[in-house]
Amino acid sequence: MKVFVSADIEGVAGATSRDDCTKGSPEYRQFQAQMDAEVAAACQGALAAGATDIVVKDAHGDGRNLSAAALPAPARLVRGYNGHPFAMVQGLDATFQAALFVGYHAGAGDGGNPLSHTLSSRKLHAVTLNGEPLSELAIHTWAAASVGVPVVLVTGDEAICAEAEKRWPATVAVAVKSGAGASTTSLHPADAVAAIRAGAEAALGVRPPAVPDLPAEWHLEVTYRDVAAAYVRAFYPGAEALDARTLAIDCRDCFELLRALVFLVGL
Ligand SMILES: [Zn+2]
After folding, report:
1. Residue 144: which CATH number?
2. Tens digit of pLDDT for each residue in 195-252?
3. Residue 107 CA, ligand 1 centroid: distance in Å
4. All residues at 6 or more sequence positions from 142 whose CB lies less than 8 Å from its CB, including other chains
5. Same domain as 249, residue 153
6. Residue 260 CB coordination number (10 Å)
7. How far is ligand 1, taken at its centre, from the CA of residue 202, in Å?
8. 125 CA from centroid of ligand 1 (Å)
9. How many Å lie between the centroid of ligand 1 and the Cα of residue 136?
10. CA angle at residue 222 from 221 to 226, to 5 degrees?
11. Helix (H, G, I), strand (E, B) or coil at 185
């Protein structure tokens, strides 16, 4: 069984402020270590369930956070980004049987995590698809579905787990913390690790859920924090400025959405 793991940091136990997730800050080391531990736990659960090949995408910031030595062999680590529109699931393809998302967090504008954002907290104020808030979980669940791979486990804050349970009830969700205002309340780090290991093993120990349906239409709206960022990106083919900070674009399929996000957010 070949398993893909996508790992973020804002949803790991304890992470609460931007400093906790930013390289170079004294707090970062503690939460980088927790990210290592939670991702290793997901890999260990996958191995216990029979995984024979695991690819882990480090999907936070510059994609260079995880320590490969902290992961159990034979897990292989994708470090850094090559710019492929699959972004947080770069490297995922139809050869995988399942995907696990670890350390995921509430989307932009959600009060369930002080670190809630979608793709870029620095650039984006809001992102919607077909009029509903768009999370990194939804973007990458659809990316996985577009190559026929179901997401079987989501771990992170309660808000993103609630979104997973609502949209894709067959996905196992493991919440390790809740957020209110600028605060979080988390499981003990060791309890979070144990819950993720058990969740991964349980999620992969049963027949994988059906691959989710993709949306019938892909109307994306992106609101920037900065008018200059919106102005230049309005020249992206198909983009339309709704106001000085908001662009809209109708994409034909999932890959077009992913590609638009690379150019409307990433550059
Ligand atoms: Zn993120």
Report:
1. 3.40.50.10780
2. 999 999 999 998 888 999 999 999 999 999 999 999 999 999 999 999 999 999 999 9
3. 8
4. 212, 214, 215, 254, 257
5. no
6. 23
7. 25
8. 14
9. 7
10. 150
11. strand
